[in-house]
Amino acid sequence: MIVFSKDSLRASVEAATGGRVTVLYDDKGYPSYMVRIPAFNVEDVAADLGTGLHPAFIVDGVEKSEIFIGQYPALVKEGRAVSLPGVDPTASVNYDTASGYCTAKGVGWHLMTNWEWAAIALLCIKNGFQPRGNTNYGRAYDQTHETGVRQDAGIPGDTDGTARTLTGSGPVTWRHDNTHAGICELVGNVWEWVGGLKTVSGKFYLQQDNNFNAAEGDWIDSGVIITDDAGTTKLGVDGTDALKPTGNTYFGAWKGLTSTAAYQVSVSDKQRMMQALIDPTFNNSNPVGGLWYDTDGEKFPIRGGSWSDAANAGVSALNLNNARSDASTHIGFRPAFVS
Fold first, then answer.
1. How far is CA 109 from CA 67, 195, 197, 221, 265, in A?
2. Do residues 75 and 335 make contact, with C-beta atoms less than 8 angstroms apart?
3. What span, in angstroms and rounded, lies between the C-alpha atoms of 119 and 315?
4. In 3D, which of 277, 256, 73, 262 has the Cα closest to residue 168?
5. pLDDT of 66-118, one tens digit each?
6. How far apart, in whole angstroms, are the C-alpha atoms of residue 99 and residue 230?
7. Global pTM exceeds 0.85
């Protein structure tokens, strides 16, 4: 059950944000603060991305005028992922459990997908503002006067304790558009599982579009792998380039990732990887965040960074080290909705 009718909470939130944030209710009646993201064409962000709607706004081939992203990382109540201010976000859940807490809310609800994360990150980069966040034990590592309220009552900057901050307790610079109507804590606080993307033995598999209901077995084999090109990690082509043989590895800043000569053959495939925020070629100077990978077995992505990741956290941060069963106090998630 999704309730759209007006109520006092929804009316007050919409009035305060000019309609940019609304409140949606799930099958158990729990409210979630949701940010409207209007559809956009990729050529309006960067010419190298191609043309047409970003895939976040296409669900099983149907174009959507908007998507809704939880304004805050998820809190679980009675098996439902809700997005609320002023709470300690739920962590220590694995990929499948996090996804289940979102889909249980009703039709249209889902774990935020990689396509949705990529769309918002691209907007941040285009707008020239990439949010900061809780990246240093309750404060921003590079602007230490920016603090949030730690859930463990610790002092910002104190490296003891579990330094998650209460959702929305930081400054507006911790929101995706530097306004009170923005999406909070995409950077830092907790890493976030995202759906619709995985690697298997170093090869990328993606949802065709933002069809969050698509079976995992139907995700597209991109043919793109993490490769070892004369000792340098790059994006390469399965069957042509050599797979990077190492396990858990920190690459460095994601924006520094390059590709092999073989990878250059398909313009459309390359554009698709850029639209998914896997290939940084469209902008090798501004995106913020690190890249981690592990080519051993099946890995699921987390995005954004946690409270202890300092300069490695960022809206473009991509960590491909985790199995679907992994869980940690540093990993949370976020609900999304498309009607």
1. 11, 12, 18, 25, 37
2. no
3. 11
4. 73
5. 999 999 999 999 999 999 999 999 999 999 999 999 999 999 999 999 999 99
6. 39
7. yes
